[in-house]
Amino acid sequence: MGLQRKTFFIISFLLLACVQAWATHIRAGEITAVRISQTSLKFRFTIVIYSDTGSPIQVADGGIINFGQGRTIGSLQGGNRQTIEDASVNFEERSIGNETAMTVIEIEHTFDGPGVYVVSYTEQNRNDGILNINGGSSKQVPFHIETVLRIDPGLDVNATPQLTIPPIDRGCIGARFTHNPGAYDPDGDSLAYRMVNLLQDRGVEVSGYVPLNDPSITTLREDGGSPAKFEIDPITGTFTWDAPMVAGEYNAAFIVEEWRYSEITGGYELLGYVTRDMQILIEDCDNERPELEIPADTCIEAGAILEAVIRGTDPDNNKVLVEAFGGVFDLNPNAAQFTPEPSFRQQPADHAFSWQTDISHVRRRPYEIQFKVSDKPTDPDAPSLTEFATWYVTVVAPAPTGLNSAIANARSIQLTWDNYVGRNFNPVMKIYRRVDSFDFDPENCNLGIPDGSGYELIDQVPINQTNYVDTNDVRPGVNYCYRIVAEFPLPKGGTSYASIETCALIPLDVPAITNISVEETDITNGEMFVKWTSPLEIDQVLFPPPFRYELIRYQGFTGTAGRTLVTSTTDTTYTDTGLNTQEIPYHYQVRFYDSGDNLIDSSSVASSVWLSALGLVQAVELKWEANVPWTNKVQEYPYHYIMRNRTDAAATDENNFVLIDSVKVTNSGFIYFDDGSFNNTPLFDDREYCYIVTTQGSYGNDLIPSPLINDSQKLCIQPNDNVAPEEPEIEIPDGAEEIDGLIVLDSPNCGDLENLGCAFSNFSNTLTWNANDVDGDIASYNIYFSPSGAEGTFTLVGNSRDASFTHTGLSSYKGCYRVSSVDRSNNESSLSAPVCFDNCPNYELPNTFTPNGDGLNDTFRAFDRPNGKCPRFVKNIEFKVFSRWGGQEIYSYSTQSAVEPNYFIDWDGRDNSGKELPEGTYYYQAIVTFDVFNPKKETMEFKNWVKIVR
User: Fold this and answer.
1) Bridge partners of 57?
2) CA pair distance 642, 659, nearest whole angstrom
3) Which residues pair with 579 in a beta bridge?
4) Is pLDDT above 70 for 904?
5) For residues 895 and 926, what is the distance between their CA atoms, to the nearest angstrom?
6) Could you tell me if 937 and 930 are in contact, meaning their C-beta atoms sit under 8 angstroms apart?
7) How far apart are CA 692 and CA 672, in angstroms?
8) Residue 121 CB partners (closer than 8 Å, separation 6+)
9) Where is the signal peptide (predicted)?
């Protein structure tokens, strides 16, 4: 604003200061903020006030701005010019129709430091006659709006949401009223909307305020239904009042929240909000609402031009005004254009939207472009009706280019790609891999890597890096396929389209397991069919056949539990018998030897398909998994098949399994919901149903025929089973003690401490248990932990399929455990009796030290080497030193009163006043309290002498 105009406004406000303070004028308003400094917490606040042009009072006469940290600016028009200029206040005012003026007040403020600040503006008074405030007597009710701003270094620079559509609209009796604030966030943060009550001061709601859907205000909707609606869409921000019954002025308020994802907390954080207090003018009229035609939501690649036609029509053939709002019109560079300039025109009124996008426009959230159409009735006194529509446009970063792969060696693959076009915006390059090729079209809003494609993120690298060597369990004979994606940093974020795919296949010079299929499900007589290929591409000159194979079996999906040499054979198939295939999955590995009986190499491990289920009301949910080197998500063979018994109408045929359905796992994943839809026969809740799932997989290698067919175990489950299983019993070894009603064990890991440093603090406990699986349907176990063992303090820390669990990441061994059984219907047993592990305390002190400043043995310090003599699990130390003669206390130290307790003591040979003590012998007493359950080990008292040698 020029100096002449600014001076005019200041003088005008000062001249009007003598007008009575209780005159009425304010209709609506809001406060927004933008940070204007990268080196300080300086913000520019914009207070927008909408006022009644019929009032003689100027906006801000007596208004108070409170910045929420002790700084308040009051009576902006009542102070002197110097005060106003020191506050950097700018004013602008213009008429926007409907007997309403818009005043924009800009003021700058610098905050002292991070925090959450409530910035408010309060002024006397609202305009009179607001029907839902004090029954229309609103002239003495203050107007108050608030904006909450969170300044957090961990969440980067921030500005509040910006509102672009004025909050004064007219509506008709009996017609649905809508409003949209046209909000956008300059930082690309997520916005959410909710209604709130009107305020008249900080934390004080307007007395006598009535919501617009209160029966005293209205009871009908436009369609004749009831009750009335008064709501705001939490995502789009469209405010709806359906419908007013009485002509007059009404006020309502809502807030626009901004949320940002935090990589520190791993969730979305509320940054603050803007409150809009708005006014609605309702009149009696005979008019139909105009309509908008806008394009479907879309994505566009950065660098392309987006063009569209926006059309406004009116069923009454009235002229229409089409307007466009949103952050895209404020961008720099390349703001969007909307032509011709909005004005009332004959309908249909077409406008051209055009936006030349560039890489700086990339962000995770779509841009929200709001369009508003208003009609112009032939009666000049009739109110205009409006309609809103929002167009969501996502600007997507271009795909990385030039991705190529090559075999680096027998266990690694080299990737290279071009420099990325958007590297100046500091994205990271994410590298994805899958087994076998998967074709998809990375465009039309198909961002990044689509769900169900089977690609897994294996690494990410800085954007300036254009090569990568994959050594992540790369195995011969597997066709590894890669794509890369650029991921842009928060707060704007954004994911590029995926690159083209590149694949590399290392020669098959080891056996490749192709089948781990359950042939028979049983607790003791289960059978597994295992098949593998020979090393088809091995150099037979270096490694002459015939080959001998050793088949190794393990329990579970991974690990070495239950390692068993099953067979040694020259064949490539084997049926493994005598297994518990009902309760345990197994995985296998093949080792092979050449004709000279030299061990050459081994295959990848591969597990059986493990089926789990959840019993629901007249339905069953199935899930299955397998840890295999091939892929079970194959585009050429995308279906897995569901077999079930009891498919007859009476559900009595237990032994006959029928194919009931298939699952396209590339779309739906490894999950199936059975409610009997396949034959329109609901499942009964009083009987068991049994299932087998057949999977299809591939290595993507032409030398290994596809598909690879494998069956899960047979799994039986009863729908709507509500009978909980038996509770487990934790195994208790010899030597346990009962202390205060708890079973306490010395940690079996105490002996390991001798090999661990004094600073070690990553402890673990392992417990095992037994469970009587009466119904044969225990699926897993929940493990609960409490540091104290007190009732009500146990929390869930893990779930295990096996009857054992290792609790890691503990600060000590001390703690108590309880275990429950969980069946396939998610019924949970009661908790087992608690069993506790105790700490193994240790503390040792020397009898000589030499405080001479040579850096060796300078303090009286608890032993910290060798490791077996470290202080362990100390809770508190009371240390006192006495003179040799008379027992006078000359020094004391307590960790209980220390800000940073030193459990080593580290006494430097000075008395309590800081004076060096002479050489000689002194007596000390140390009472050490340990963090243990066992009271016999809780306290250790040391009484001994110590010699100071200087």
Assistant:
1) none
2) 6
3) 526
4) yes
5) 12
6) yes
7) 12
8) 29, 31, 47, 49, 63, 64, 65, 66, 144, 145
9) 1-23
- Find the DSSP H helices in 740-798: none
**In the β-sheet with 619-625, what is the strand arrangement from edge to edge?**
610-616, 619-625, 671-674
Tokens read off for 414: 């080299």
Peptide bond into 638 cis (omega under 30): no
User: What is the distance between the alpha carbons of residues 828 and 778, in angstroms, rounded to a whole number?
Assistant: 9
Nearest alpha carbon to residue 117 among 200, 185, 35: 35
* Torsion, Cα of 844, 847, 851, 856 (10° steps): -60
CA distance 859 to 439: 69
User: Of 765, 763, 612, which is closest to residue 693 (Cα–Cα)?
Assistant: 612
Do residues 295 and 273 lie in contact, with contact meaning Cβ atoms separated by under 8 Å? no
Please compute the mean of the pLDDT values over residues 260-272 and round it to a whole number.
85
Question: Torsion angle, CA of 852/853/856/858, rounded to 10 degrees?
Answer: 70
Sign for the CA dihedral angle at 824, 828, 833, 837 comes to positive
* Cα distances (angstroms) measured from residue 869 to each of 210, 863, 945: 73, 6, 19
- CB distance 575 to 567 below 8 Å: no
- In total, the chain counts a number of residues equal to 950
User: Would you state the structure tokens that stand for residue 379, as one six-digit string?
Assistant: 């009666």
Q: Which of 653, 659, 614 is nearest to 640 (CA)?
A: 659
Q: Determine whether 22 is exposed, middle or buried from the number of CB atoms within 10 Å of its CB (0-12, 13-18, 19+).
A: exposed
Rounded Cα gap, residues 371 and 427, in angstroms: 33
Please classify residue 244 by burial: count the beta carbons closer than 10 Å to its beta carbon, then call 0-12 exposed, 13-18 middle and 19+ buried: buried
**Residues 535/510, Cβ–Cβ less than 8 Å:** yes
- Domains in the chain, start-ordered, CATH in brackets? 3-283 (2.60.40.10), 291-314+329-396 (2.60.40), 404-505 (2.60.40.10), 513-607 (2.60.40.10), 610-717 (2.60.40.10), 729-838 (2.60.40.10), 848-948 (2.60.40)
The two structure tokens encoding residue 208: 């006598």
What six digits make up the tokens of 755?
């090999």
What DSSP string describes 359-375? Answer: GGG--SSPEEEEEEEEE
DSSP structural state of residue 676: S
Q: Cβ–Cβ contacts within 10 Å for residue 307, how many?
A: 12
The pLDDT, as a whole number, for residue 773 is 87
Cross-strand bridge partners of residue 261: 268
DSSP structure class, residue 138: -
Q: Under 8 Å CB-to-CB from 759, ≥6 apart: which residues?
A: none
Q: In Å, how far are 322, 590, 776 from 557, measured between CA atoms?
A: 62, 16, 21
Dihedral sign from CA coordinates of 647, 649, 655, 656: negative
* Torsion sign (Cα): 717, 720, 721, 727: positive
CA pair distance 280, 189, nearest whole angstrom? 29
What is d(CA 652, CA 657) in angstroms, rounded to the nearest whole number? 12
Q: What pLDDT, in 10s, does the model give residues 717-753?
A: 999 888 899 999 999 988 899 998 999 999 998 888 8
Please choose, from the candidates 146, 177, 199, the residue with its C-alpha nearest in 3D space to the C-alpha of residue 281: 177
Identify each DSSP E strand in 13-99 by its residue range: 26-35, 42-52, 64-66, 72-74, 90-97
**Coil, helix or strand at residue 82:** helix
Interior angle at CA 906, CA 905 and CA 910, nearest 5: 110
List, for residues 314-343, the tens digit of each pLDDT value: 999 999 999 999 999 999 889 999 999 999
Pairing of strands 715-717, 573-579: unpaired
> Does residue 646 contact residue 687 with C-beta atoms inside 8 Å?
yes
Contact criterion met (CB below 8 Å) for 713 and 610: yes
Contact between 97 and 344 (Cβ < 8 Å): no
Position 474: which residue type? V
Q: Which residue shows structure tokens 């959230």?
A: 365
CA angle 437, 442, 443 (to 5 degrees): 160
Q: pLDDT-based confidence at 416, cuts 50/70/90? A: very high
Q: How far apart are CA 49 and CA 26, in angstroms?
A: 7
